[in-house]
Structure formats: structure tokens, C-alpha cells
Amino acid sequence: MVYENPWMRVREDAIVRTGGVEGIYGVVEKPDFALVIPMDAGGVWLVEQHRYPVGWHHSGHN
What is the pLDDT of residues 30-59, one digit of tens each? Predict the structure, then answer.
């Protein structure tokens, strides 16, 4: 744990990146969040993203 207050916590995890390079990943933990969803011509655009804190990888589509 790097920082903590009543609204959020910040931690740094030791990770190994693609190619074997070691590093750290900062993770912000908080109970509330907001989403911004880009829309165009009646569709929603998503991109491929890896979400390290939850161990999730998603390939987006329209």
C-alpha cells in the first residue's frame, strides 16, 4: 500500500511485462466509479484493453 485515505487506496504491484521486463503497476482502489462511453451513429465503440487489476482482457467491437 502506497497511499490510503477514507475514499481510496493506491498500491504498487511488482509485475513482469511482455518480454520479461520487470516493473511496477500502480492500482487505484475505490468503491465508486464513472464511465464515459463514446457513441457514434447509434453504436458504441470499444477498444482492446487489458485490465491488470482484475486480470481481464477484452477485445472490443462495435
Answer: 887 777 788 888 888 777 767 777 766 555
